[in-house]
Amino acid sequence: TERTLVLIKPDAVARGYVGEILGRIERKGLTISALDLRTAPGEIAAAHYAEHEGRPFYPGLLEFITGGPLVAAVLEGPRAIAAFRQLAGGTDPVEKAVPGTIRGDFGLEAQENLVHGSDSVESAEREIALWFPHLAAN
Ligand code: ATP
Predict the structure, then answer these.
(1) Residues in domain Nucleoside diphosphate kinase-like (predicted)?
(2) Is position 116 annotated as part of the catalytic site?
(3) Which atom of ligand 1 is nearest to the CA of 88?
(4) Inside any domain, residue 90
């Protein structure tokens, strides 16, 4: 089994898609092992997106991600990382994500793309430790 860190971003929460997205996660067969609605502090958001520091969209991304409540979750299951990224679709909801995916069905813009999912075991463990310190793998 594998773990992944998922964010249901502030745009999705504001638009009322939390239930829809959690429903897709549950129907896929992934287990929700942690779930929390919160407004991300700037330091957490900056650490989460540290790899994008210096990119032109970075300041706007931090403003967006801290600008309203989001839902942070830990999902568990076989190949959970790839399974959630399949549900999410590609980063750009129009250019990359296809219909049938969360971003492909509900997104229009590269930034406000509804969800985040860890992209590797290493980033999943780093992100779980950041968002849910009590669940950090020692
Ligand atoms: P995530 O890590 O959130 O699942 P991702 O791995 O598909 O997304 P990254 O390339 O890591 O995509 O970008 C992280 C986030 O930064 C994206 O999900 C999106 O919200 C934002 N972003 C990425 N590219 C752009 C862009 N060109 N313009 C605006 N925002 C962007």
Answers:
(1) 1-138
(2) yes
(3) 4
(4) yes
Number of domains the chain contains: 1
> From the annotation, which residues make up the binding site?
9, 57, 85, 91, 103, 113
Ligand 1 proximity of 96 Cβ (cutoff 6 Å): no
Structure tokens at 62: 């931090």
C-alpha 12/C-alpha 10 separation (Å) is 5
Mean pLDDT value of segment 78-88: 98
Cβ atoms of 70 and 8 within 8 Å: the answer is yes
118 Cβ partners below 8 Å, 6+ apart?
Answer: 4, 5, 6, 81, 84, 124, 127
Ligand 1 pocket, 110 CB below 6 A?
A: yes
pLDDT in tens, 91-125: 999 999 999 999 999 999 999 999 999 999 999 99
- Provide the CATH number for the domain around residue 23: 3.30.70.141
Whether this model's pTM surpasses 0.95: yes
The domain containing residue 43 runs over which residues? 2-133
Domain-located, residue 11: yes
pLDDT computed for residue 109 by the predictor: 95
Indicate whether 138 belongs to any domain: no
Residue keyed to tokens 């290493």: 122
